[in-house]
Amino acid sequence: MSQLIYFDLDDTLLDHASAEEHAQRETFESNAPHFGGVAFAEWIPRYREVNRALWDSYARGEVTGEALRVERFAATLTALGLDTAGAASLSKAYLACYANHWRLNEGAEEILAAASNHGTVGLLSNGFREIQRAKIERFALTRFVSHVVLSEEVGAMKPAREIFDAAVALAGGNGDGARVRKVYIGDSFATDVVGAKNAGWLPVLYNPSGAPPPAPVLFVTRLSDLKPLLE
Fold first, then answer.
1. Residues 29, 9 share a domain
2. Each residue's pLDDT tens digit, 117-169
3. DSSP calls for 105-159
4. Does one domain contain both 134 and 87?
């Protein structure tokens, strides 16, 4: 039986959460007048709440990617009673800082190398195309990966079935072959596990905290623990 092994990018292979927090803190500290004395501990949870809601709107086609980048700052500033005039400059500063803090999670290269010995390896990710492509290039992930499927390029975002079907088609299949084992590894239950399962893939949750998932699912707390599952 042949095997497709696709990985999520952010917070699975790469530590997005840490990069985001470091970049937000640098942006916050370097642009203090824009934040009007608000504490960072108050800013970051509100920003994340606004950002999540905007990404949901983006998935529904209600906002553009360009609007999202600026509006997540503008809406957070508004929610905290602050002037939104600097939202565009804050967005630009944040993205510049964010790229400086990209790091692979422990075991990422090791598990990609191992997976490439057991099947066709791919990346399947939501996110802005140019940023995700830059991450792939930064860490030379194409050493291990045959296919890259990005939501902006496909026109569908996880958990939509269309993005998973596009991954199968890119690998030369039709999505219905019983002789192809399709495995998807990601950190989000709502988008990665639910999306993969609904598309007929075997989902594996990367769950480093070890917290009980909301429903039964195969999960690992370390990327290296995936090895026996891929053989």
1. no
2. 999 999 999 999 999 999 999 999 999 999 999 999 999 999 999 999 999 99
3. PTTHHHHHHHHHTTSEEEEEE-S-HHHHHHHHHHTTGGGT-SEEEEHHHHT--TT
4. no
